[in-house]
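[audit] Reproducing an earlier prediction to check determinism. Same input, same settings, fresh worker. If the tokens differ from the archived copy the diff job will pick it up downstream; this log only records the rerun itself.
[audit] input (97 residues):
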Amino acid sequence: MAMNLKPLGDRLVVEPRERESTTASGLVLPETAKEKPQEGEVVAVGPGRRDEDGKRIEMDVKVGDVVLYAKYGGTEVKIDDKKLLILKESDVLAIVG
């Protein structure tokens, strides 16, 4: 994916993974009934924040990691018809291993 989006500081760009659109019993869920995804793949990572002395603190996540993030965290953007989410590293709850 050719992306012209470079996050700054301790921010990262995540491509959300869509949940299944059918239930276990086979019912198809409309778009309005779906829950907001909380899992996605990291597609870009900023350089990290700076501490009080001006030294860079490295990010714990890297491009390609699958992460769980806060339900209402981040800012949604749409680039090249893809929905992306810009999050602060503190909005990431866990790396799925």
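[audit] rerun output stored. Observation attached for the diff report: The chain has a mean pLDDT of 85.
[audit] end
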